Protein backbone atom coordinates (compact mmCIF):
# COMPACT_ATOMS: atom_id res chain seq x y z
CA UNK A 1 0.00 0.00 0.00
CA UNK A 2 1.45 3.38 -0.97
CA UNK A 3 2.15 5.95 1.72
CA UNK A 4 0.40 9.37 1.63
CA UNK A 5 3.62 10.85 0.25
CA UNK A 6 3.76 8.25 -2.52
CA UNK A 7 0.13 9.03 -3.33
CA UNK A 8 0.95 12.74 -3.65
CA UNK A 9 3.77 11.96 -6.05
CA UNK A 10 1.70 9.57 -8.17
CA UNK A 11 -1.22 12.03 -8.30
CA UNK A 12 1.03 14.91 -9.33
CA UNK A 13 2.94 12.86 -11.89
CA UNK A 14 -0.36 11.75 -13.38
CA UNK A 15 -1.57 15.38 -13.51
CA UNK A 16 1.63 16.59 -15.14
CA UNK A 17 1.50 13.89 -17.80
CA UNK A 18 -2.16 14.72 -18.48
CA UNK A 19 -1.37 18.44 -18.80
CA UNK A 20 2.01 18.41 -20.54
CA UNK A 21 2.43 14.93 -21.94
CA UNK A 22 5.44 14.30 -19.69
CA UNK A 23 6.69 14.73 -16.13
CA UNK A 24 10.29 15.68 -15.42
CA UNK A 25 11.94 15.57 -12.01
CA UNK A 26 12.12 19.37 -12.01
CA UNK A 27 8.39 19.66 -12.82
CA UNK A 28 7.49 17.28 -10.00
CA UNK A 29 9.77 19.12 -7.56
CA UNK A 30 8.11 22.41 -8.45
CA UNK A 31 4.58 20.99 -8.19
CA UNK A 32 5.27 19.51 -4.75
CA UNK A 33 7.61 22.25 -3.49
CA UNK A 34 10.41 19.78 -2.75
CA UNK A 35 14.04 19.44 -3.83
CA UNK A 36 14.79 17.52 -7.03
CA UNK A 37 16.93 15.07 -5.01
CA UNK A 38 13.84 14.17 -2.95
CA UNK A 39 11.89 13.58 -6.15
CA UNK A 40 14.62 11.31 -7.51
CA UNK A 41 14.56 9.19 -4.33
CA UNK A 42 10.78 8.87 -4.40
CA UNK A 43 10.68 8.15 -8.12
CA UNK A 44 13.16 5.32 -7.55
CA UNK A 45 10.88 3.89 -4.84
CA UNK A 46 7.86 4.17 -7.13
CA UNK A 47 9.86 2.42 -9.84
CA UNK A 48 10.62 -0.44 -7.43
CA UNK A 49 6.91 -0.72 -6.62
CA UNK A 50 6.10 -0.75 -10.35
CA UNK A 51 4.02 2.44 -10.45
CA UNK A 52 6.39 3.93 -13.01
CA UNK A 53 9.50 3.29 -15.03
CA UNK A 54 12.36 5.66 -14.33
CA UNK A 55 15.59 5.93 -16.26
CA UNK A 56 18.16 8.34 -14.92
CA UNK A 57 18.55 11.39 -17.22
CA UNK A 58 15.83 10.05 -19.53
CA UNK A 59 12.66 10.71 -17.57
CA UNK A 60 9.82 8.55 -16.44
CA UNK A 61 6.58 7.02 -17.57
CA UNK A 62 3.72 5.64 -15.54
CA UNK A 63 3.02 1.93 -15.80
CA UNK A 64 -0.57 0.81 -16.34
CA UNK A 65 -0.76 0.29 -12.57
CA UNK A 66 0.58 3.80 -11.92
CA UNK A 67 -1.68 5.42 -14.47
CA UNK A 68 -4.78 3.71 -13.10
CA UNK A 69 -3.87 4.62 -9.53
CA UNK A 70 -2.94 8.20 -10.48
CA UNK A 71 -6.29 8.67 -12.19
CA UNK A 72 -8.09 7.29 -9.15
CA UNK A 73 -6.16 9.63 -6.83
CA UNK A 74 -6.91 12.67 -8.98
CA UNK A 75 -10.59 11.73 -9.11
CA UNK A 76 -10.60 11.36 -5.30
CA UNK A 77 -9.10 14.83 -4.94
CA UNK A 78 -11.61 16.39 -7.34
CA UNK A 79 -14.51 14.60 -5.65
CA UNK A 80 -13.51 15.88 -2.22
CA UNK A 81 -13.19 19.43 -3.58
CA UNK A 82 -16.66 19.11 -5.10
CA UNK A 83 -18.08 17.73 -1.86
CA UNK A 84 -16.61 20.51 0.27
CA UNK A 85 -17.96 23.12 -2.16
CA UNK A 86 -21.41 21.50 -2.02
CA UNK A 87 -21.53 21.72 1.77
CA UNK A 88 -20.47 25.36 1.76
CA UNK A 89 -16.81 25.28 2.77
CA UNK A 90 -15.14 28.59 1.91
CA UNK A 91 -13.33 28.38 -1.41
CA UNK A 92 -10.00 29.56 0.00
CA UNK A 93 -10.02 26.65 2.49
CA UNK A 94 -10.95 23.83 0.15
CA UNK A 95 -7.53 22.91 -1.28
CA UNK A 96 -5.82 22.73 2.11
CA UNK A 97 -8.74 20.83 3.62
CA UNK A 98 -8.68 18.27 0.82
CA UNK A 99 -4.92 17.87 1.22
CA UNK A 100 -5.48 17.33 4.92
CA UNK A 101 -8.17 14.66 4.65
CA UNK A 102 -7.70 12.82 1.37
CA UNK A 103 -5.15 10.34 2.71
CA UNK A 104 -7.12 9.61 5.86
CA UNK A 105 -10.38 8.42 4.37
CA UNK A 106 -11.02 4.82 3.39
CA UNK A 107 -11.98 4.06 -0.18
CA UNK A 108 -15.36 3.00 1.22
CA UNK A 109 -15.85 6.50 2.66
CA UNK A 110 -14.80 8.00 -0.67
CA UNK A 111 -17.39 5.88 -2.47
CA UNK A 112 -20.10 7.01 -0.01
CA UNK A 113 -19.14 10.66 -0.54
CA UNK A 114 -19.23 10.07 -4.29
CA UNK A 115 -22.76 8.68 -4.02
CA UNK A 116 -23.83 11.65 -1.89
CA UNK A 117 -22.39 14.12 -4.39
CA UNK A 118 -24.18 12.31 -7.24
CA UNK A 119 -27.42 12.41 -5.23
CA UNK A 120 -27.03 16.15 -4.63
CA UNK A 121 -26.31 16.75 -8.31
CA UNK A 122 -29.50 14.91 -9.25
CA UNK A 123 -31.51 16.72 -6.58
CA UNK A 124 -30.30 20.34 -6.49
CA UNK A 125 -33.30 21.28 -4.35
CA UNK A 126 -31.68 19.27 -1.53
CA UNK A 127 -28.58 21.46 -1.82
CA UNK A 128 -30.82 24.52 -1.54
CA UNK A 129 -32.51 22.99 1.53
CA UNK A 130 -29.11 22.36 3.10
CA UNK A 131 -27.88 25.87 2.35
CA UNK A 132 -31.02 27.32 3.98
CA UNK A 133 -30.52 25.05 6.99
CA UNK A 134 -26.86 26.05 7.23
CA UNK A 135 -27.71 29.77 7.12
CA UNK A 136 -30.25 29.24 9.89
CA UNK A 137 -27.66 27.35 11.97
CA UNK A 138 -25.10 30.09 11.34
CA UNK A 139 -27.63 32.70 12.46
CA UNK A 140 -27.95 34.34 9.03
CA UNK A 141 -31.45 35.63 8.37
CA UNK A 142 -32.52 36.78 4.93
Could you characterize what this model shows?
- The protein has a two-stranded antiparallel sheet with strand order 1-2.
- It is mainly alpha-helical and 142 residues long.
- Helix 1 (4-20) packs across helix 2 and helix 4 (64-86) packs across helix 5 (91-101).
- The chain has helices at residues 4-20, 25-32, 36-48, 64-86, 91-101, 107-122, 124-137, and strands spanning 52-55, 59-62.
Mean pLDDT: 92
The unreliable regions are none
- CA distance, first residue to last residue: 49 Å
Helix content: over 70%
Assembly classification: single chain
Number of helices: 7
Radius of gyration: 18 Å
Query: Order of strands across the biggest sheet?
Result: 1-2
Class derived from helix and strand content: mainly alpha
Main β-sheet description: 2 strands, antiparallel
Proportion of residues in β-strands: 5-15%
Q: Total strand count, please?
A: 2
Shape: elongated
Encode the helix/strand succession as letters. Answer: HHHEEHHHH
Concise description?
This protein has about 140 residues and is mainly alpha-helical.
Write the layout of secondary structure elements.
Blueprint (H helix, E strand, L loop, with lengths): L3 H17 L4 H8 L3 H13 L3 E4 L3 E4 L1 H23 L4 H11 L5 H16 L1 H14 L5
Helix pairs in contact: 1-2, 1-4, 2-3, 4-5, 4-6
